[in-house]
Amino acid sequence: MTEQQKKKTSKFLSYVLRHHPELINLNLDENGWANVDELITKSKRNPHEGISFEELNEIVETNDKKRFIFNEDKTRIRANQGHSIDINLAFVPQQPPEFLYHGTAQSNIDSIFEKGIEKRNRQHVHLSEDKETATKVGMRHGKPIILTINTEKMFNDGIEFYLSENNVWLTDFVDAKYIRQ
């Protein structure tokens, strides 16, 4: 599988497992898990796709963002976070580090300092432990701006945080008072 094929397939999986399982009539349980055999069978009905177990396994194991996870016996798969559909990822609240980072585009800065960071159509706001990851995220939207979030203060103020399987910190909203550029 070439890098271009992996990227295309990963985008397809993200779209189906995070946003639109109905595209291939895929059933997700309340926690976002899909049956691997069903995913493989139904992906072959899509004229642009078609995934084998070997390809699926390669994507899960080599995806640099660790977007997907199998259950222990690899019979079920789900996206780690980033869903726009209503599922329960069963995250347990955790204490974050003192600071986390959020990558965004220059064009969003005024709105963020006015309204805070909103989850919009996602289930959570995504935060990174390092500036490098936040920069990569921000680059997808234009000239990257890295914001520093005082997550220790947020946590002390009673705001909950969760840590996904692929080490992305999640919260519901970041008020502008906790943000600095």
Automatic annotation (TrEMBL):
<dbReference type="Pfam" id="PF01885">
    <property type="entry name" value="PTS_2-RNA"/>
</dbReference>
<dbReference type="GO" id="GO:0003950">
    <property type="term" value="F:NAD+ poly-ADP-ribosyltransferase activity"/>
</dbReference>
<dbReference type="InterPro" id="IPR042080">
    <property type="entry name" value="RNA_2'-PTrans_N"/>
</dbReference>
<dbReference type="InterPro" id="IPR022928">
    <property type="entry name" value="RNA_2'-PTrans_KptA"/>
</dbReference>
<dbReference type="InterPro" id="IPR042081">
    <property type="entry name" value="RNA_2'-PTrans_C"/>
</dbReference>
<comment type="similarity">
    <text>Belongs to the KptA/TPT1 family.</text>
</comment>
<keyword id="KW-0520">NAD</keyword>
<comment type="function">
    <text>Removes the 2'-phosphate from RNA via an intermediate in which the phosphate is ADP-ribosylated by NAD followed by a presumed transesterification to release the RNA and generate ADP-ribose 1''-2''-cyclic phosphate (APPR&gt;P). May function as an ADP-ribosylase.</text>
</comment>
<dbReference type="GO" id="GO:0006388">
    <property type="term" value="P:tRNA splicing, via endonucleolytic cleavage and ligation"/>
</dbReference>
<keyword id="KW-0808">Transferase</keyword>
<dbReference type="GO" id="GO:0000215">
    <property type="term" value="F:tRNA 2'-phosphotransferase activity"/>
</dbReference>
<dbReference type="InterPro" id="IPR002745">
    <property type="entry name" value="Ptrans_KptA/Tpt1"/>
</dbReference>
<protein>
    <recommendedName>
        <fullName>Probable RNA 2'-phosphotransferase</fullName>
        <ecNumber>2.7.1.-</ecNumber>
    </recommendedName>
</protein>
